[in-house]
Amino acid sequence: MTPVEPIRKPKDGSDKSGKPGKPPAAPDVVVRPVARKAHVRKRHRFLFFSLFGLLVLPVMLTIIYLYVFAEDQYASSVAFTIRQEETGSASEIMGGLSALMGGANTGNTDVLFEFIQSQEIVERVAQHVDLRTHYAQFWTSDPVFSIWPTATIEDLLWFWRRVVRITYDRNSGLIDVQVRARSPEMAQRIAQAIVLESELMINALNEAARRDSMANAERDLQEAMTRLRAAREEMAEFRARTQIVDPQADIQGRMGVLNNLQQQLAEALVEHDLLLQITNESDPRIRQAQRRIEVIRERIAQERVTFATENVTVLETDYPRLLAQFEGLQMDVQFAQQTYTAALTALDAARSNAARQGFFLATFVRPTLAQRAEYPQRLLLVMLTTMFLLLGWAIFALIYYSIRDRN
Question: pTM for this one?
Answer without folding.
Answer: 0.62
